[in-house]
Amino acid sequence: MEITAQQLATMVQGTVVGDGGTVINGYAKIEEATTGCLTFLANPKYTHHIYTTQASAVLVRRDFVPEQPVQATLIQVDDPYRTLGQLLNFVASQRPEKQGVEQPAHVGNGTSVPDDAYIGAFAYIGDNVTMGKHVKIYPQVYVGDGVTLGDDVTLYPGVKIYHGCRIGNRCIVQAGAVIGGDGFGFAPLPDGSYEKIAQVGIVILEDDVEIGANTTIDRATMGATVIHKGVKLDNLIQIAHNVEIGENTAMAAQVGVAGSTKIGKQNVVGGQVGFAGHITVGDHNGIGAQTGVDNSLGSNGKWLGAPAQPAMEFARQTVYIKRLSEMQSDIKAIKKAINELRNE
């Protein structure tokens, strides 16, 4: 699809600086863009690329003032990253949508498939499954008995939704994710072996949740593991039984959350963070990559390190650690001087 810079600016309530007739027919990162591409500048550390980019047009903030000539046409907007996201979503929405049930696929007893649904080949849909409007179930998906799928749910290839789980409206589950596998519940026996404890709860994904590829969310021992509205989980995350994650919390890849931990709303969690079990984390926290959260945390904090500590304190300790070899040399010199004084 081709569009001029002026036409695009009109769509996004932007202002053109340069040639409004510039033709745009693709999208690319600012350092990789070629003629015809639209790109964006949101992070100041990439500003130097705007002077060398081969892109035809660049989305920039309204207050952006170049320090040297820019060859590309600029489109000034309030938030370049969000604007680009809206444009990409629009482009994606223009793709033709699949509908109907491909064969072979299994649809169980008591399950009604809406006319506007899509079920890909080799999908298995169990008994008494409830489906909302515009559900998309891609090939090789498993949906167990009694599962509820809301409107506009998308399950990508290889997703597994175990029996009884509830998936809210507009949820997206990426390929290979498992929702509702058994929680890690085992009772130790006198002989050192383990007896499995039946996991009879479910998983609930509320509206507008997205689950990344190969992420696993365990069903509750009793009750429900709950992922609240708007939560975004990256790839390769493990959420254990009876965990609760608050609204609009976002977690990067390889986070692990142990059983029965409660995490509040609007938290941003970096990659490879580990949460111990049976703790509570408040709201609006920023938790840096590889942090080990072994105790409950309050709200509105920034945390780093293992065990987790306030980010500024961690930064100070890091400075001290970097100076250890220097401090060791100083201590040796002091000891030597003291010994010389004693021997005089």
Condensed summary:
The chain has 344 residues and is of the alpha/beta class. The protein folds into three domains: 3-93, MurE/MurF, N-terminal domain (Udp-n-acetylmuramoylalanyl-d-glutamate--2,6- Diaminopimelate Ligase, Chain: A, domain 1, 3-Layer(aba) Sandwich), CATH 3.40.1390; 100-313, 3 Solenoid (UDP N-Acetylglucosamine Acyltransferase, domain 1); 319-343. The chain is built from four helices and 39 strands.
Question: Which descriptors would you attach to this protein?
Answer:
flat, alpha/beta, 39 strands, Udp-n-acetylmuramoylalanyl-d-glutamate--2,6- Diaminopimelate Ligase, Chain: A, domain 1, 344 residues, ten-stranded parallel β-sheet, 4 helices, 15% helix, UDP N-Acetylglucosamine Acyltransferase, domain 1
How would you portray this structure in words?
There is one protein chain. With 344 residues, this protein is an alpha/beta fold. It has three domains: 3-93, Udp-n-acetylmuramoylalanyl-d-glutamate--2,6- Diaminopimelate Ligase, Chain: A, domain 1 (3-Layer(aba) Sandwich); 100-313, UDP N-Acetylglucosamine Acyltransferase, domain 1; 319-343. Helices cover 15% and strands 28% of the residues. It contains four helices and 39 strands. The strands form six sheets. It has a twelve-stranded mixed beta sheet, with helices on one face. The protein is flat and about 100 Å long. The mean pLDDT is 95.
Mean pLDDT: 95
The computed structural class is alpha/beta
How many DSSP E strands? 39
CATH topology of the largest domain: the name is UDP N-Acetylglucosamine Acyltransferase, domain 1
Give the CATH superfamily of the largest domain. Answer: Hexapeptide repeat proteins
Tally of structural domains: 3
Strands side by side in the biggest sheet: 8-10-13-16-19-24-27-30-33-36-38-39
Amount of helix: 10-25%
State the separation between the terminal residues, measured CA to CA: 89 Å
Instruction: Please identify the top-level CATH class of the largest domain.
Output: Mainly Beta
CATH architecture verdict of the largest domain: 3 Solenoid
